[in-house]
């Protein structure tokens, strides 16, 4: 039997904030994610991966989802597992390792190098949880992590300024060359940290990160990775191509989460207008884009569609039919939410942004859409 959904119905779904009852009710998509991807002790598992890996990325995103779901029990489980297994028992003394897995039924760290984007998300979620749940430990830990990120995962790059490195080691090369990732920098986190920690140069980091995103997406699409040479600027080569895919999809997502009056929001929406046009023409979000030409190919997975819905709604989009089609498919088929980690993460971010389950103010403050009565 065919499912017919009218345009009016879809638009109502897209732009109607959650009611009070919906705010206080459990967030069903988060409950599904916990059931299928989260262990009893708070580990987020990339199902089907070799060695059943856990990444600091997965742990950091789960902290954010637990916070906007008002799920403090899950938040603490995820935080405690992260601290015990990725940070040698103390997040205040070391940044978490990015990769953990199981070998011969024994779990251990597979790569101890931290990932700066995950560290940012952990620190941000802790800082906002400290405010929303009035927790002094979260506040102190967020401040310590923010300090460590600034000290261990940034570098002053001539011609670019203070910049976020993807990790403390492995991304600086001879002759003042650097490998950078535009998707590692949600600009609203820097904006919030510049408010919370005014004596650290977070505003400078935000400015250079915005420049990184805008300068590398002049054709309307972002690359996954880019090289920077202090003499010739941004460039691509055979190893670091202009391909944008599983990393770059987050650049558009983070932009859509920003307040309309946030710094750089209008510039980003304008910059990505060609990509929105491509999605409208094709009727889906492409898997691959190419930053030097703006070209794209192949069909992206369902998570890509979910991640772009908020930007489609934010932009001056002249093709509502595409937005409605994507939304309808997501409503009908949720099978990915039980087995595909990354698709599920992108869907949780995209759907909660679109549903206004939370807002992020211009200064980067998180405002979950649950009231005092729900606490």
UniProtKB/TrEMBL annotation:
It catalyses: Endohydrolysis of (1->4)-beta-D-glucosidic linkages in cellulose, lichenin and cereal beta-D-glucans. Residues 1-21 form the signal peptide. It comes from Pseudoalteromonas translucida KMM 520. This is cellulase. GO terms for molecular function: cellulase activity. Keywords: Carbohydrate metabolism, Cellulose degradation, Glycosidase, Hydrolase, Polysaccharide degradation, Signal. One of its GO terms (biological process) is cellulose catabolic process. Its EC number is 3.2.1.4. Belongs to the glycosyl hydrolase 8 (cellulase D) family.
């Amino acid at each position: 039997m065919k499912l017919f959904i009218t345009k009016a119905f879809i638009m109502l779904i897209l732009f109607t904030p959650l009611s009070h009852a919906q705010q206080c009710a459990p967030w069903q998509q988060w409950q599904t994610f916990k059931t299928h991807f989260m262990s009893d002790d708070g580990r987020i598992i990339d199902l089907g991966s070799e060695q059943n890996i856990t990444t600091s990325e997965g742990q950091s995103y789960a902290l954010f989802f637990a916070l906007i779901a008002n799920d403090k029990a899950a938040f603490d489980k995820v935080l405690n597992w992260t601290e015990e297994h990725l940070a040698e028992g103390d997040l205040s003394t070391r940044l978490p390792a990015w990769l953990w897995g199981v070998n011969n039924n024994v779990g251990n760290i597979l790569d101890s190098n931290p990932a700066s984007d995950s560290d940012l998300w952990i620190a941000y979620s802790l800082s906002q949880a400290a405010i929303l749940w009035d927790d002094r430990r979260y506040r102190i830990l967020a401040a310590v992590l923010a300090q460590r990120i600034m000290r261990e995962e940034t570098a002053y790059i001539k011609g670019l300024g203070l910049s976020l490195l993807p990790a403390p080691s492995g991304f600086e090369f001879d002759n003042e060359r650097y490998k950078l990732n535009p998707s590692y920098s949600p600009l609203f986190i820097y904006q919030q940290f510049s408010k919370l920690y005014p004596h650290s140069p977070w505003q400078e980091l935000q400015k250079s990160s915005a420049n990184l995103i805008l300068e590398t997406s002049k054709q309307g699409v972002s690359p996954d990775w880019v090289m920077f040479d202090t003499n010739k600027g941004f460039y691509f080569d055979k190893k670091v191509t202009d391909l944008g895919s599983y990393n770059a999809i987050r650049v558009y997502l983070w932009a859509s989460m920003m307040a309309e009056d946030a710094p750089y929001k209008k510039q980003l929406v304008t910059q990505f207008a060609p990509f929105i046009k491509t999605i409208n023409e094709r009727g889906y979000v492409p898997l691959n884009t190419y930053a030097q030409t703006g070209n794209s190919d192949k069909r992206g997975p369902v998570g890509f569609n979910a991640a772009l819905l908020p930007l489609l709604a934010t932009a001056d989009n002249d093709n509502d039919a595409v937005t409605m089609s994507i939304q309808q498919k997501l409503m009908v088929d949720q099978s990915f939410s039980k087995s595909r980690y990354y698709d599920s993460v992108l869907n949780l971010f995209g759907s909660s942004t679109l549903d206004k389950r939370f807002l992020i103010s211009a200064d980067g403050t998180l405002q979950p859409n649950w009231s005092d009565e729900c606490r």
